[in-house]
Amino acid sequence: MVTAAILGGGRGTRLGSLTPKQFFELEGESIIIMSLRAFKESRLVDAAVMLVPEDFVGYTESLVAASSLSDESFPVYVLPGGENRSETLFLSLEFIKEKFGLRDNIVLTHDAARPFINKRIIEDNIIAAKKYGASNTCVPATDTVFLSSDGRFIQSVPERKNVFHAQTPQTFNAEKLYELCKKMNKEEFYSLTDGCSVFINSGEPVFMVRGCENNIKITYPGDIERARDILKGGFKNG
Q1: Are 237 and 135 in contact, with CB atoms under 8 Å apart?
Q2: How would residue 49 be classed by pLDDT, with cut points 50, 70 and 90?
């Protein structure tokens, strides 16, 4: 089984809107529903779990109902997210464990505010996770990156060819991810920002899947204009 966990438990205040960024509309459809639609239309995913702020659960359920994306072949469940990204991730795994079981389940964890995922990336992630246990969508860095421990002075300059920017989905053998999360103490687990960090900190390999420039995360006001340009270019997520 393949399950998509669409993680949108945050408020997205950097966008400058009172409404969490994942509910901002592009061409009449909210970003979180665009992200959900990509997984449904890929025909590679069996079910989806959406995690949102608790006071937006009912609203999200109404958006899903209006979109007609949830059906017997692709059921969609909406849950309240946690206090941070790690807790939201674990809540999604707990739900999948209860609803479907974790054995032989591949879970794709995806930013709710990243609506331009495409079928090729989804498929490559599923194949990689089945083979290696974990994968992360990545694109090569195009700018020089500096490292600084104090935020004031440059300490080192890593070779650009060795630097990549992370996107989502991140994809896992669900049972393995759950086991690794359970082994960590709460403080250690909450200090991590995503599932790949759980694998890496546990000494487990994470395969890199090639992402794409259009697979942007809506974070700042300027990202909205870029998203509109992508849509004007005739973006297709299938």
Answers
A1: no
A2: very high
CA 28 – CA 223 distance, rounded (Å) = 17
**Average confidence (pLDDT) over 40-49:** 98
Q: With beta carbons less than 8 A apart as the criterion, state whether 35 and 115 touch.
A: yes
Q: Are 116 and 214 in contact (CB under 8 A)?
A: yes
How much is the pTM?
0.93
Q: What is the mean pLDDT of residues 116-122?
A: 97
Q: For residues 206 and 167, give the distance between their C-alpha atoms in angstroms, rounded to a whole number.
A: 14
Token pair in block for residue 187: 């403080």
Label residue 22 exposed, middle or buried (CB < 10 Å: 0-12, 13-18, 19+).
buried
What residue has token string 């900190």? 201
Residue 10 tokens, joined: 């945050």
CA dist., res. 79 & res. 53, Å (int): 8
238 pLDDT higher than 70: no
Q: Are 6 and 79 within 8 A, CB to CB?
A: no
**How far does the chain reach from its first CA to its final CA, in angstroms?**
20
For position 19, what pLDDT does the model report?
76
Tokens of 198: 């759980």
Residues 21, 113 contacting (CB under 8 angstroms): yes
Residue 117: name the closest of 36, 7, 207 by CA. Answer: 36
